[in-house]
Design brief:
The chain is mostly helical. The protein is built from 10 helices and no strands.
Length: 174
């Protein structure tokens, strides 16, 4: 997690430079990178600021593929923000994300001889990832603003779908 805390400080000067140069695609990528870092350390308020700016830059030219690439690392945070701004773009984004997810999973599995599950829902993947990082059920519930029974049930479903017996084993599937 230490590296994740450094990413915003490294990327912010780069964002300032691409803004000054008026280059949109690198700015979108950098903002999403920073959003992922903030999200991973639990600062969703800061992540949301960068997600909103990336969405504002991507929508005029329908650069939804750039957003879809980052959906896996931003869980439902990106979905929620895009849905509020443009439901039509959100529907297209979901189709793109699904196609990317299936292809990425197949490629990753073949390259790394790992079985990353496509059967997990976004919420199951989110809970499984946090459990694999070592967070307790209580910490996961607080981080995701969901109830403790929901965490338990979601974790149970994820472990059943992946055939794992231990929380740390979930890391191979997320």
């Amino acid at each position: 997690m230490g590296l994740m805390r450094m990413i915003p400080y490294i990327a912010e000067p780069l964002i300032a430079r691409v803004v000054a140069e008026g280059v949109i695609v690198p700015e979108i990528y950098l903002r999403l990178l920073v959003a992922v870092a903030y999200h991973q350390i639990g600062d969703d308020a800061s992540a949301t600021l960068h997600i909103d700016k990336a969405i504002a830059l991507a929508l005029p030219d329908r650069l939804l593929g750039l957003l879809a690439e980052h959906r896996r690392n931003l869980d439902t945070l990106l979905d929620d923000r895009l849905m509020r701004v443009d439901p039509e773009a959100f529907a297209c984004f979901k189709e793109l994300q699904s196609t990317l997810q299936e292809g990425w999973t197949r490629l990753h599995n073949s390259l790394h001889s790992k079985n990353i599950s496509t059967a997990l829902t976004a919420r199951e993947r989110e809970v499984a990832r946090l459990a694999a990082f070592g967070l307790s059920n209580t910490e996961i519930a607080q981080r995701l603003c969901i109830s403790l029974p929901t965490v338990r049930k979601t974790l149970f479903n994820a472990m059943n779908k992946t055939g794992t017996n231990k929380r740390r084993e979930l890391g191979a599937f997320v």
